[in-house]
Amino acid sequence: MLRPWPLTIAALAGLIALSLSLGAASFGDDAGWLLMVSRIPRTAAALLAGAGLALAGVVVQQVVQNRLVEPSLTGAPEASMLGLLAVTLLAPGMAVSGKMLIAAAAALVGMAGYLALAARLPREDPMLLPIVGMVYGGILGAIGVWMAWSADLMQYLGAWRLGEFSGVMMGRYEWLWGIAALAALLYFIADRITILGLGEAQARSLGLDYAQTRALGLVVVSVITALVLVTVGSFPFVGLVAPNLVARWRGDNLRANLPLIAVGGGVLLLAADVIGRLLRYPFEIPAATVVAVFGAGVFLWLLHAAPGRRHG
Amino acid sequence: MAERRLLWLGLALLALCGAFLAWQLRAPVGFILGLRAAKLGALVCVGAATGAATILFQTVAGNRLLTPGLVGFDALFVLLQTLLVATLGGVGVAMIPASLRFGVELVALAAASALLFGLLLRRDARDVTRMILTGIILGVLLRGLASMVQRMMDPSDYAVVQQAMFASFGRVDPQQLAVAAVVLLAALAAALRMAPALDVAGLGRETARGLGLNHDRVVMVSLLLMAAMVSVSTALVGPITFLGLLTASLARQVTGTHRHAVLIPASAIIGALILVAGQFVFERLLGSQSALAVIVELFGGLLFLVLVLKRRRR
């Protein structure tokens, strides 16, 4: 049996080294400057965004008690884009922090809509939730495309919808460090999030303030979604793949798994970015495209492999 | 009864086409009419192809929520095209005679879809929700693969793919349209000829086999016909995921029958009606281009949610 931690750390170290040494510019006298301004920020951004999305995936999965759901299957990114479009149209000069706030609030509203839909679905059919989430996101996305089209903002929308890291530089990604703070918060309340996954009745009987904890979890998810979306764009399936692979490997102890899930998400996204940079060097393929292909493959495998323990 | 409704639908489509051509027609009449006719032809072809293909697919899958667009049939076509150009190169593809190329693509698409979707339809027949989810994710996977290969191509090769794939309603090549129309008519005629067999196939594999139908053969022929129809609509205009769901549901509602001899033409006509009416409203009355596909997606998506939620109450 392979031990998860050494393997993950080795992969992480290898990817970081690759990512730091890879790029159109070659190292010369200004190697240190190049690293500081471009390579390190890009590597850090991919790791942070991946970790954040993976953690957000865990929280969403516990809240809806379904392994096959993740933030991008709840309409959160699309709702966030709608909020951002509205800001761009109504108050184009707003500071980035204001935009983040509105994007997060919109993501929260979008997720609330999804939860309302999900509550009306039968519990015994767990695969309906991702289907409904995908279509719900598609509807919000169509509204966004329509808005963007009529306001000539398609280029903005394109940048948000297909996440990539080629534009990351010093001074343009620092918001993502907020994810590290949120990760610490999640680690602190990991046990409560686990109890959320038992369902409302069970959680209440264990003495948990269900509504409050759920609200807290969803706020964390929407803030992460907004941070990632505004700085680097959206990435599908990261929040689905990392937690599921870790759970299959190590079982379900959430507090013990959270660090591994976070690192795993970071490794996944950094690997996607490195592959995207290598496939057609020196041109780049967006990390979101690479992740979509890999993530869809893993999703299909999860659907058809011998069933692991499944909630719901 | 159902036949009479079909007749009304046909008449409505004819009237709408007339209005589309004649609305505020000014000089130079001949030039404008030519442009409008090409656009109208493309709209009708795409709508009819999508509508008919969806009915076929839903019958074969035994599932009213799946559509060829949802499982990525069109993405498979794009992927095959892209791979063809990527392996032979833009120049190599251009050297092949158009008709031969189209035929080869059609057979390749049918074979690939039979392999992929045949497996999907057979293995997951019992668990309908899993089949839908697998289909949707398969669509995501195929789309991602296609765009990844496209990103890796030479820009000049990519231009060849783009030209073959993403013509819009705005600029339709009359010659391409003519080929598409002929292929579509042939596929529709073949689908209508096997309508009785499809009626039986709609009862499910076991029942159909019990009644003496060669179910696997019907599935294969249906996939081939679908491949032809989907390639027609994808070649003329990009994918409209939920159009098929709208047309097939409406066709079942309007005709109230299970007979494919009526359902297939009804769905084809309704598909054409939706696109022509939508384009008419958006382009002529509201003066905004290109919003049509988005609006169709919006309402199709909403319909999908309603159907999923309704399924629960039954």
Shape of chain B: globular
SS content category of chain A: mainly alpha
Helix content of chain A: over 70%
> Which chains share the greatest interface?
A-B, 38 and 32 residues
Low-pLDDT segments, ≥5 res of chain A: 308-312
The chain-level mean pLDDT of chain B equals: 82
Order of helices and strands of chain B: HHHHHHHHHHHHH
Oligomer: heterodimer
In total, the number of strands of chain B is 0
Which word captures the global form of chain A? Answer: globular
Beta-strand share of residues of chain B: under 5%
Strand content of chain A: under 5%
Largest sheet of chain B: none
State the low-pLDDT regions of chain B, or none: none
Mean pLDDT of chain A: 87
Task: Set out the fold topology.
The complex is a heterodimer of chains A (312) and B (314).
Chain A: H1 4-21, H2 31-64, H3 76-90, H4 96-119, H5 128-151, H6 154-161, H7 178-188, H8 190-196, H9 200-205, H10 210-232, H11 238-250, H12 254-278, H13 287-304
Helix pairs in contact in A: 1-2, 1-12, 2-7, 2-10, 2-11, 2-12, 3-4, 3-5, 3-10, 4-10, 5-6, 7-10, 11-12, 11-13, 12-13
Chain B: H1 2-22, H2 29-61, H3 73-95, H4 98-123, H5 128-152, H6 155-165, H7 174-193, H8 195-201, H9 205-210, H10 215-236, H11 243-255, H12 260-285, H13 292-313
Description:
The complex is a heterodimer of chains A (about 300) and B (about 325). Chain A is mainly α. Chain A is about 70% helix and about 0% strand. Chain A is globular and about 65 Å long. Chain B is mainly α and about 325 residues long. Chain B has helices at about 1-20, 30-60, 75-95, 100-125, 130-150, 155-165, 175-195, 195-200, 205-210, 215-235, 245-255, 260-285, 290-314. The longest helix of chain B has about 35 residues, at about 30-60. Chain B starts with a helix and ends with a helix. The relative contact order of chain B is 0.18. The interface between A and B is medium-sized, with 38 and 32 residues.
